[in-house]
Amino acid sequence: MEANTANHLLGDRAESAFMTEVMSRGYRAARPYSAHSPYDVIVDSGVGRLWRVQVKTVGPLHLANKRMHHYRVTLLQGNGKRTLSRKENDFLAVLVMHCAIWYLIPLNAIRARSAITLLPDIPGSKYDRFREAWHLLGRARLPALPKRAWQKTIITTHKIPQQAAVERSDRKRWLQRSGSPRK
Fold first, then answer.
1. Tally of domains in the chain
2. In-domain check, residue 174
3. Cα separation of 120 and 24, whole Å?
4. Which domain CATH number covers 24?
5. Does the residue 148 lie in any domain?
6. In what side-by-side order are the strands of the sheet with 50-58?
7. 105 forms bridges with which residues in the sheet?
8. Contact at 8 Å (CB) between 42 and 30?
9. What is the C-alpha to C-alpha distance for residues 133 and 106, in angstroms, rounded to an integer?
10. Inside any domain, residue 55
11. CA triple 69-73-114, angle to 5 deg
12. pLDDT tens digits for the chain (183 residues)?
């Protein structure tokens, strides 16, 4: 599987996980119809305000020591050709994959141009105040759903190629059983 395809699958899974989390908290969420939209998800806070959210996922950049992880979040869009714009996005939602932590950062709080670094193991770090900061979306209109185990989605990159291999083998078996020509 190509790296670009794996990245798109990972992004789709993160967007779905974000929408699940947002809706479980009582907000409404939608994805833009166009894949070329500058934001990934629209969140309705229920008070006449729609938030445009860009969703990103990150894995550990490096291990500073055995207990601290650093996560670098790229702020570039469109194959690295342009940065996130405050005119087109209201929030950056980042899923730290290995510990299932969400950061909900308003774009006006970001001064960097190409990347930011998240340090979830260091209390009081620069973006720590935006960790699980769902209150920034405003008060939810709908009642929040009770937490269930399936609502905490942990996304790991090593599962994507395995999942694709299973899908390919399933398709191959289906084609063999149906007698359809292989494409």
1. 1
2. no
3. 23
4. 3.40.1350.10
5. yes
6. 28-30, 41-44, 50-58, 91-96, 101-106
7. 92
8. yes
9. 10
10. yes
11. 135
12. 566 677 778 888 889 999 999 998 889 999 998 777 889 999 998 777 899 999 999 876 555 555 667 788 888 776 667 788 888 899 999 999 878 899 999 999 988 778 898 988 888 999 999 999 999 998 877 777 666 544 444 444 444 444 444 445 555 555 555 554 444
Q: How many CB atoms lie within 10 A of CB 58?
A: 21
d(CA 78, CA 158): 24
Q: How far apart are the first and last CA of the chain?
A: 17
Phi/psi of residue 99, each to 5°? Answer: -130, 10
Encoded tokens for 78? 């469109």
Q: What is the dihedral of CA 77, 79, 82, 86, to 10 degrees?
A: 0
Domain that holds residue 96: 3-154
Nearest to 97 by CA among 137, 152, 147, 148: 152
Is residue 127 a contact partner of residue 105, using CB atoms and an 8 Å limit?
yes
- The SS3 assignment for 16 reads helix
Question: Token match 């798109």: residue?
Answer: 8
Tell me, yes or no, whether 182 lies in a domain.
no
